[in-house]
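Supplementary notes for students who missed Thursday's class. We covered one full example, reproduced here. Read the sequence, then the structure, then the short commentary at the end.
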Amino acid sequence: MDEKKEILSVTDRGGVKLVRLRSAAILSEEDVELLGTGLLALTEVPGRRVVLSFLGVHHLTSLVLGKLLQVNKRLAESGGELRLADIDPRLYEVFAITHLDRLFRIFERQDEAIASFADKPEA
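Structure (token representation):
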């Protein structure tokens, strides 16, 4: 019995796709690929607004950062935007050390990230 592993949970919150990671650790190549595939599927709609919540995530591989860069680029190319939220302070250090905190718009809570789109109507 081949059970498909679900690594993402996606809900719509007022025209914003809220994506929650369903694992406390994203370390395996398989998990990174599932994450990438799920996030890239969201970029297929032009102008899509996405909030990625890291609530409960404590460990991730640097390969995840590469996937986030790819998703961010694809969204920007289609007029969409990506926001990150709920990042554990230890994980945030990785974003700061790599200067990705300057590239991504990062919010303490997902509700703040969703609200940040309020001044920009969906394309």
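Commentary. Residues 8-115 form a domain with the Transcription Regulator spoIIAA fold (CATH 3.30.750.24). The mean pLDDT is 92. If anything here is unclear, bring it to office hours.
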